[in-house]
Design brief:
Blueprint lengths: L3 H6 L20 E6 L3 H12 L4 E7 L2 H11 L3 E5 L7 H11 L4 E6 L3 H11 L3 E4 L4 H12 L7 H11 L3 H9 L8 H11 L4 H8 L3 H15 L4 H14 L3 H10 L11
Helix pairs in contact: 9-11, 9-12, 10-11
Length: about 270
């Protein structure tokens, strides 16, 4: 066991040589930082992980700035992070963290469709992607796989990726040209979600610290890729997509607010 001073000075992501396949007595506990803007959900994950013999939650955070501070303070081996943190761009944040702390392991979990977001999260530097609707035992399997140096995605997504690899090139090119949400870039996808959550161009620009002109350019690119012809069509398509891809309990919240023509951006 390292002494406290040595642990404090250890680089982020520096793990003890442990056997994660056989959790139990004598196994050093993996240090985990949990990030989610919903305190009730975050508390549930923290409590559950702290009950495991091979894991300990060294900290928790609810947004990007507090996560940056906690990573530096707690020196976790693994970050378990919700994909959406308010209007913040979590994928860009994952890229930043991996550049700052190459040894930090990151498991992203989300309510949004893994067929669209898992690959984006892995490209950003995440080591695994887990759907929030997964049973609680699956988060343990995901964490242990990632701590062993493996990439974690669901079996369904792995099979889908294998099928995609078998597609012929002409078929693949046709899919890339089709007006599908999956063909949006990461930044376009983020803007698309914010549009579908009821934010106007100026509010999106302010939230992302970008110019209004840049957001207008993104909106134009999104309309072009999705075959849309007006801002109204974009808002309608984006709103429908956000509602369709939220968890059932989140849809219930939206159904009430939709009467006011505003759809809140929920964490995913």
């Amino acid at each position: 066991m390292r002494d406290p001073a040595e642990q404090k000075n250890a680089p982020v992501g520096d793990a003890h040589p442990t056997d994660m396949s056989a959790p139990g007595k004598g196994v050093a506990k993996a240090r985990i930082l949990v990030v989610d803007e919903h305190s009730l959900l975050r508390h549930g994950i923290v409590t559950y992980l702290n009950c495991q013999p091979d894991m300990i939650v060294c900290g928790e955070a609810d947004d990007i700035p507090s996560t940056q501070s906690k990573v530096a303070e707690c020196r976790p081996q693994l970050l378990v992070i919700g994909l959406r943190l308010g209007t913040g761009d979590s994928l860009e944040f994952v890229k930043t963290l991996k550049a700052q702390y190459p040894g930090l392991l990151i498991l992203v979990y989300s309510a949004f469709e893994e067929a669209i977001f898992a690959e984006r999260a892995l490209r950003a530097g995440a080591n695994g992607y887990l759907m929030k609707k997964a049973i609680k035992e699956e988060i343990l399997a995901a964490i242990r796989d990632v701590l062993r140096g493996q990439i974690y995605v669901s079996r369904e997504l792995a099979l889908r990726a294998f099928q995609k690899s078998l597609e012929t090139q002409p078929q693949h090119r046709l899919l890339e040209k089709a007006p599908r949400v999956e063909n949006l870039s990461d930044r376009e996808m983020h803007v698309f979600q914010l549009v579908g959550s009821g934010l106007g161009t100026r509010k999106i620009a302010h939230a992302l610290n970008l110019s209004v002109k840049t957001i207008e350019t993104h909106r134009g690119n999104i309309k072009g890729k999705l075959g849309l012809h007006s801002g109204a069509e974009l808002t309608e398509r984006a709103t429908a997509w956000v509602m369709e891809n939220l968890l059932p309990q989140q849809r219930n919240e939206i159904s009430v607010i939709k009467k006011k023509k505003v759809v809140p951006f929920r964490a995913a």
